Every structure is written in C-alpha cells, then in structure tokens.
C-alpha cells in the first residue's frame, strides 16, 4: 500500500518548493531550471502560455518581460504519494498593473535518480 504524506517526503518537497519560490521571486533562472525536469514531456501551463518541454520553459523564463515576481503565498499544501511522487498546491496574491490579483499554482514532483524534479506545473489568475 502506498504511504500518503510520509513526513520525510513532505518536508523534502516543502523545502524544495520554498527554494523554487525564492528563485521565482528573484528570477534565479539557474535554480528554477535545476528544479524542473529537463525533458520534452515536462509541461508548464502559465497565465497566458502553454509550454511543452524544458527548452520552451527555459526560453520563456529567459525572455519574461517582468522577471521579478513579488507575491504572497497562502494555503501551501504538499501531499506525497509513496517515496517518489508528490504534489504542491497553493494560492497567491500579487499586484498586476496596479491591481491586486489572486491566483493558484500546482506542481507535480517526481523523484528521479538525480533527485526531485517538477514534471508538471500550472499557474492561473482568478478573474477580477
């Protein structure tokens, strides 16, 4: 039977997610790239873009018009499934063009031999 919410796995993914959040807010491309699976199968659905594969995700980040992201996160939830799979979900609030916007984010993480990687990600803003 699969163990749900193994405390060690939940702690590992929580730490990795917080590392990702810091890299995202500070536009640390090297860290963000290192945490995403570099494969054609990785997917990131963003606010206005659908990105398939590590190259598209990396290219988007390198060319983002506003590379600094300031936001507050809430309702961070990490759920692990066995020793090698986990999900992260959260809500966030940020100012976009002078307007307070609320959004949500989800990531699926998988443990490869080289370590944990995001294999699927989604970011969306709620309607105003």
Automatic annotation (TrEMBL):
One Pfam family in the UniProt entry: AtzH-like
Protein name: DUF4440 domain-containing protein
Natural source organism: Nostoc punctiforme (strain ATCC 29133 / PCC 73102)
Keyword Iron: no
NCBIfam families linked to this entry: HpxZ
Superkingdom assignment: Bacteria
Keywords, ordered alphabetically: Plasmid
InterPro entries referenced in this protein's UniProt entry, alphabetically: AtzH-like (IPR024507), NTF2-like_dom_sf (IPR032710)
């Amino acid at each position: 039977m699969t163990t749900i919410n193994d405390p060690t796995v939940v702690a590992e993914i929580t730490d990795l997610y917080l590392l990702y959040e810091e890299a995202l807010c500070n536009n640390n491309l090297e860290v963000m790239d290192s945490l995403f699976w570099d494969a054609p199968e990785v997917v990131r659905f963003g606010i206005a873009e659908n990105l398939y594969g590590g190259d598209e995700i990396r290219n988007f980040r390198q060319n983002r018009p506003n590379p600094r992201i300031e936001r507050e996160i809430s309702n961070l939830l990490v759920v692990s499934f066995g020793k090698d799979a986990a999900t992260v979900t959260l809500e966030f609030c940020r100012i976009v063009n002078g307007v307070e916007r609320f959004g949500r984010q989800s990531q699926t993480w998988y443990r490869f031999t080289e370590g944990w990687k995001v294999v699927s990600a989604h970011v969306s803003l709620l309607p105003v």
